[in-house]
Write a structure and sequence with these properties.
Layout (H helix, E strand, L loop, with lengths): L14 E5 L4 E6 L2 E2 L3 E6 L2 E6 L5 E7 L3 E3 L17 E6 L3 E6 L1 H7 L3 H27 L2 H12 L1 E2 L5 E2 L6 H8 L3 H13 L3 E4 L2 E4 L2 H10 L6
Antiparallel strand pairs: 1-9, 2-3, 2-8, 4-7, 4-9, 5-6, 5-8, 10-11, 11-13, 12-13
Helix pairs in contact: 3-6, 4-5
Amino acid sequence: MHTTVDITELLQYGERVTFKKGDCLATSIAGESNGDIFILSSGICALSSISLDGKETTYLYFKREQFVGFTSLMTTFNLNYYGKKTFSIIAKTPCVAYRISNRSFQELLGFPSITALMVNTLTENLVYLMEHFHSSKNEPALVQFSRFLMDQAEQEPSGELLLDTVFTYQEIASYLGMHSVTIARMVKALREEGLIDKVGHQIRIINPQKMTNLITEEQKIDY
């Protein structure tokens, strides 16, 4: 196998499967895990947990051409915790993925290029989680929201940057720990500044450079 590998080259080792919105791809309990490995071909999934009172917390969104659910291959750590926290990967939209069995993926890890690809994925996820945590503790709400838009918007064939319809005001508010009314007010403010627009139920980023400046310079816009 080549010294470098594209994740799409691994699709040949998997079985094509589909998931409906709300389906669970994988579940992991602290110190324990199970399930196969998936490569997401299309759709959006989320790493989340449900509290005892039924509240869902989302930590990370997965988009196409990403590994999903390979915690079963990680070393089991003896963690000091009280009770076991269950984490799940849930399909937020209809998804197409390629499922690779745990055993097959273990064999693929014998290739340094595959191991490097997996480590890169883990590192990217960790950095994203750290940035989100830092943002939630230190950045103004509008900067957090703008960062979310830039992170999650996908470039369409037309060149437009659009947010998937799954990201409703309530979905975004839940992820950012804000109220949906606050999200609506920030959308209105950014539209008035000419930074974003609405296309049906989707948010479109009109001026990515100004959005980036707003984030890096923590510019203030009344909302």
